[in-house]
Amino acid sequence: MTTASTIHRLAGFLSIVILLIARCEAMVSTSCLTAMEEVAPCVNFLLQSSKEPSGECCSGVKKLSGHIGNQKDRTAICECLKQGLAEIGTYDPELIPQIPKACRLSLTLPPIDQKTDCSK
């Protein structure tokens, strides 16, 4: 995948984030925009453009985990990510649980795709 293609997909991903702000912001203390900004550096890993999550990806996931206080927060962030991930193109949802492991974070993330039930 070319750098231009990756940048184009990231731009599309971030533009959908802007559309989701109003909906997600009311649902969770951490806005959808903040959640998407924090995990945006993980796109290259999810698109398999890089073999490991970047330091920025790890830092963003760590920050995001600090905002998750209860089930309502987890559900809202999951829904936000689910909608944003739908816009980046074809990715392997099984890579999502690998991010915390690769970043050495004590956090469990489920594979998130359009079939994911975020209430669980």
Automatic annotation (TrEMBL):
It holds the Pfam family Tryp_alpha_amyl. One of its GO terms (biological process) is lipid transport. Gene3D superfamilies: Plant lipid-transfer and hydrophobic proteins. This is Bifunctional inhibitor/plant lipid transfer protein/seed storage helical domain-containing protein. GO terms for molecular function: lipid binding. InterPro entries: Bifun_inhib/LTP/seed_sf, Bifunc_inhib/LTP/seed_store, Plant_nsLTP. Keywords: Disulfide bond, Signal. Residues 32-118 form the Bifunctional inhibitor/plant lipid transfer protein/seed storage helical domain.
